[in-house]
Structure formats: C-alpha cells, structure tokens
C-alpha cells in the first residue's frame, strides 16, 4: 500500500490521509490502484491512550485515485509541542492488510 500524511494543528480540523497522487493506495497483489479498501485511523498519546475529542477509529473515505482521507474534529485534545502516535490500518479489496504508524508533534498554526 502507500504513504500516510498527517499534520496536527491545535484547534484546527486536521486531515488524516493515506495515499498520494504519486503513491496511491494499491492492491499489493495486482499493483493496481485500490479504490475499495477499508481504511481507519486512530491518534494516541505517547502512553498509548486515545486522544479525546474524536470517536476512534475514524474511517478514511476514498477521495480520488487511491487517496483516502478523514477530517478530524477541531476539538481534539492536543498539547503544543507534544508528540502523538498516529496509526492508520487498511484492508485492501483483496483482503491484504497494511498498517502505518507515525509520530507527529502537535503545533499551533502561525502566520509567517
């Protein structure tokens, strides 16, 4: 399958994403873009507790061309400069399983 993209901005509606234009979610057997995968995501603090402010896991819906996304609530309980573990799991249309884990730091969005 493919890469995940996550940014955590405090007080914003963040987006979890699996797949990109250059690296879409693909069937690992045929190599073709998989538009019928089941994809979910959960955000944990570094002690393994689910972050409050959202009902987990969220479902990432197929957007276009093998890109799956979920918009998260702007009320996630995030602390600035704190790391969180994001876990995205997928079951491809042929039943193959994939899991991605990434650690991201929550930040306040600022103008430059």
What are the main properties of this structure?
seven-stranded antiparallel beta sheet, Immunoglobulin-like, mainly beta, 7 strands, 40% strand
Condensed summary:
By secondary structure, this protein is mainly beta.
Describe this structure in words.
The chain is mainly beta and 112 residues long. It has one domain (4-105): Sandwich (Immunoglobulin-like), CATH 2.60.40. The protein is built from no helices and 7 strands. The protein has strands at 4-6, 15-18, 38-45, 58-64, 67-71, 83-91, 97-105. The chain has a 7-stranded antiparallel beta sheet with strand order 1-2-5-4-3-6-7, with no helix packed on it. The radius of gyration is 14 Å and the shape is elongated.
Helix count from the secondary structure assignment: 0
Do you know the CATH architecture?
Sandwich
Stretches where pLDDT is under 50 for at least 5 consecutive residues are: none
Return the average pLDDT rounded to an integer: 92
The rounded distance between the terminal residues' Cα atoms is 35 Å
Secondary-structure-based class equals: mainly beta
Q: For the report, how would you describe the main beta sheet?
A: 7 strands, antiparallel
Q: Can you write the helix and strand succession as a string?
A: EEEEEEE
Q: Which strand order does the major sheet show?
A: 1-2-5-4-3-6-7
User: How large, in whole angstroms, is the Cα Rg?
Assistant: 14 Å
Helical amount among residues, as a percent range? under 10%
Count of distinct strands:
7
CATH topology grouping: Immunoglobulin-like
| General shape | elongated
What portion of the residues fall into strands of 2 or more residues?
35-45%
Domains (count): 1
Mind telling me the CATH class? Mainly Beta
């Amino acid at each position: 399958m493919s890469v995940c993209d996550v940014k955590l901005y405090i007080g914003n509606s963040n987006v979890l994403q699996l797949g990109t234009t250059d690296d879409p979610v693909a069937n690992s057997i045929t190599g073709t873009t998989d538009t019928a995968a089941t994809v979910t995501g959960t955000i944990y603090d570094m002690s393994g507790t689910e972050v409050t402010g959202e009902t987990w896991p969220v479902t990432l819906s197929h957007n276009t061309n093998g890109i799956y996304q979920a918009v998260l609530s702007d009320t996630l309980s995030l602390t600035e400069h704190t790391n969180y573990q994001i876990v995205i799991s997928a079951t491809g249309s042929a039943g193959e399983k994939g899991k991605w884990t990434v650690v991201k730091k929550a930040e306040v969005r600022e103008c430059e």
